[in-house]
Amino acid sequence: MIFSLRAVSATCAGTILISTAALAHHGWSWTQDGFFELTGTITAITYANPHPTLDVNVEGESWRVELATLRATANAGFMEDTAAVGDDVTAIGNRSREETEPRMKAVRLVHKGETYDIYPNRVPEN
């Protein structure tokens, strides 16, 4: 079997691009340092791969709150039916580096008096 150098190079470049995009999506590089807290009303819940998300209305502005992987979110005790649209929630985590993007990655959720440490190793000191 003979492979052309061009085909091998194109395959390698494509693999690197896909891997970089996946790491950027799942990592913390897109978030700011330091913690951020928001409280609002859940307007949508997506409990699916690559990770669950909540859309939260905060004083008329819609925020996207990204959680951990399904397994890590479930391990924190936050299940698909834990919260519902219309419920209030407080999310603590890291907001997007893009200041105009209303998006954050939560390390902790507080819902109906219960605390869910989505990323227990990253939760700020109380």
Describe this structure in words.
By secondary structure, the chain is of the alpha+beta class. It is built from 2 helices and 6 strands. The protein has helices at 5-26, 70-75; strands spanning 36-46, 53-58, 61-66, 88-95, 103-111, 114-117. Strands 1-2-3-5-4 form a 5-stranded mixed β-barrel. Mean pLDDT is 86; it is low at 15-24.
The helix-strand sequence is: HEEEHEEE
The number of helical segments is 2
Q: How many DSSP-defined strands? A: 6
Query: Structural class, judged by helices and strands?
Result: alpha+beta
Measured on Cα atoms, how large is the radius of gyration?
18 Å
**What distance separates the N and C termini?**
61 Å
Work out the strand percent. 25-35%
List its traits.
5-stranded mixed β-barrel, 126 residues, 2 helices
How would you summarize what this structure contains?
By secondary structure, the protein is α+β, with helices and mostly antiparallel strands.
